[in-house]
From TrEMBL:
It comes from the Eukaryota. Residues 1-224 form the Peptidase S1 domain. CDD domains: Tryp_SPc (cd00190). Pfam families: Trypsin (PF00089). GO terms for molecular function: serine-type endopeptidase activity. GO terms for biological process: proteolysis. Keywords: Disulfide bond. This is Trypsin-10. Belongs to the peptidase S1 family. CLIP subfamily.
């Protein structure tokens, strides 16, 4: 399942954020990763199809759409964006499913364990992306575990995930990457998008993820509209 991550890169092929493919042309990522590229989508490149950084197929970007409520109620509220690629990704094994429209938004899932993937830093002291895609298993935690974030954390639109004792987490340059859950049919669903945290894997400050299921309708409408227009 490592291959389900993809890399957002600058024009000079430098990795800075992650994302996940939800259709052959649509990438889900964090708004804070791409809001500066909205009017300059040609400056953004998307690398798909390889666990080794710099080895994937490079795709140009047609359109970037940031959720209209991004940053309105707090800095990371609605931290979600959809990227429309200029051409289709032919390898469907890179694609994940959105949550079912009929799935309850109540967390945790039947299994508390979910998986995040990315090329991000391996610790606070490491300031560069790793060369090989990595994955980490984390637990969906209660709001109590994220109370250290104060007003920045909102249970209704965010997921608190990590370990109570710290030690395992996503980190810088993992932003925009997916938090994945294996459903009963054996398909990977994206339920979270890496949003923010204080440091990496610190006790009392688990990772915070945008809760995809709360934006399911917006994502699906956007995909449909873009298919009709582009």
């Amino acid at each position: 399942m490592l291959g389900l991550g993809l890399s957002l890169q600058t024009l000079f092929r430098k990795h800075f954020c992650g994302g996940v493919l939800i259709t052959s042309r649509h990438v889900l990522t964090a708004a804070h990763c791409v809001h500066d590229f909205i009017f300059f989508p040609w400056l953004l490149k998307v690398s798909v199809g390889s666990e080794k950084l710099g080895r994937g197929d490079i795709f140009d970007v047609d359109v970037i759409v940031v959720h209209p409520s991004y940053g309105k109620s707090s800095q990371y509220a609605a931290d979600l964006a959809v990227i429309v690629l200029s051409s289709e990704v032919s390898d469907k094994t890179n694609k994940v499913c959105l949550p079912s429209l009929y799935l309850s938004a109540t967390y945790p899932f039947p299994s508390n364990y979910v998986v995040a993937v990315g090329w991000g830093h391996t610790s606070d002291n490491v300031k560069y992306a790793v060369k090989n895609l990595r994955q980490v298993e984390v637990k969906i935690l209660s709001t109590e575990n994220c109370k250290g974030y104060g007003y920045l954390y909102s249970e209704s639109i965010m997921i608190c995930a990590g370990w109570e004792e710290g030690g395992k987490d996503t980190c810088q340059a993992d932003s925009g990457g997916p938090l994945l859950w294996l459903n009963s049919e054996g398909n990977w669903e994206v339920h979270g998008i890496v949003s923010f945290g204080f440091g990496c894997a610190n006790k009392g400050f688990p990772g915070v993820y945008t809760k995809v299921i709360e934006f399911n309708g917006w994502i699906r409408r956007l995909v449909l509209i873009s298919r009709l227009m582009l």
